[in-house]
Structure formats: structure tokens, C-alpha cells
Specification:
It is a single chain. This protein is 8% helix and 41% strand. It is mostly beta strands and 158 residues long. It has one domain (2-6, 18-155): Immunoglobulin-like (Sandwich), CATH 2.60.40. Strands 1, 2, 3, 5, 9 and 10 form a six-stranded antiparallel beta sheet that branches. 28% of the residues are buried.
Length: 158
């Protein structure tokens, strides 16, 4: 993924308290649309990631693509997980341009009640990414006390 310009904020929405959620928006010219899990995307699309945190206070957002690459989105550098903002839609500081990786781009939101090293989530993502096409559907093998949600973009051909 390549760093891109920030998208305009999406319209405010009301959230129901519950599990954390991962949100993905796409920019097309002046239009910003919220995507649904399983949406079709293509190389060159600019996407903005956001999350809504409900219970767990710490988290990381990681992606795995059809080429087996793993990318850390939140925090921006390996180290400790980010402290998540509670009960609000929070956009990551940068939007991203999708690269030409085939088949899919899958984003994971990994959360915990306690601070944790992001390397735990990155290692689990690398193991899933190494399995090829099952990386599109297989959950991450995380230690007890972690929760995960994911969002898959299906990649259209050129």
C-alpha cells in the first residue's frame, strides 16, 4: 500500500455500544463511500480506515493481501498497541492507495483490555499470510484475551 492524501470525513453516524468495528471508506473523485465487507476494489483505489471501539482499550490494525504481504496500519510503527478512542468513529491519520496485489486485501482490528506488543498480532498475521488463499478467511491465532474483527476487500482484475 502507498500513503495517500486524507479523505474528507464521512458523515457522522450513531453507534450502538458493543463490539469494536473496523470501517473502510473509498474515495472516488469528490465522492466518499463507506464500503461493505466483501466489496470489490481495484489497484489504485484510495481507502480510509476507521474503527469504533466499544470495550477493549488497546488495539492494532493490520492488513494481509493476496500476495502474502502484511502491513501495519495502527499504530504506525511496530512497538506497543495503540490506546483506542472509546465510543467514537476514529479515522486513521492516513488514507492508502491499494496496490496491485491479487485477489483480496484483508484488514484486521485486534483488540485487548491490556497493552500488548504489536508483534503478537504481526506474527499471527504473517502465519496466516503464508498460507496463501486461506488468508482471505482464516482467523488469526491470538492468545487468550484478544478479540479480532476483519474486513475483506475483493480485488478486481486489471
Amino acid at each position: 500500500m502507498v500513503l495517500a492524501v486524507l479523505l474528507r470525513p464521512a458523515p457522522e453516524q450513531t453507534w450502538i455500544k458493543g463490539d469494536a468495528a473496523l470501517l473502510v471508506y473509498r474515495s472516488r473523485g469528490t465522492e466518499v463511500e463507506q464500503l461493505q465487507n466483501g466489496a470489490i476494489a481495484k489497484a489504485g483505489d484510495t481507502v480510509q480506515l476507521a474503527y469504533v471501539r466499544a470495550r477493549q482499550a488497546y488495539g492494532a490494525i493490520i492488513s494481509v493481501d493476496g500476495a502474502g504481504r502484511v502491513t501495519l496500519h495502527l499504530p504506525e510503527r511496530d512497538g506497543d498497541a495503540a490506546r483506542l478512542v472509546r465510543d467514537a468513529r476514529t479515522e486513521l491519520p492516513h488514507a492508502y492507495e491499494l496496490d496491485a496485489a491479487p485477489e483480496f486485501e484483508r484488514f484486521f482490528l485486534i483488540t485487548s483490555d491490556s497493552p500488548f506488543p504489536v508483534s503478537i498480532a504481526l506474527d499471527a498475521a504473517r502465519k496466516v499470510a503464508a498460507r496463501g488463499n486461506t488468508a482471505r478467511t482464516e482467523p488469526l491465532a491470538l492468545p487468550k484475551g484478544f478479540e479480532q474483527s476483519w474486513f475483506v476487500l475483493m480485488k478486481a482484475g486489471p
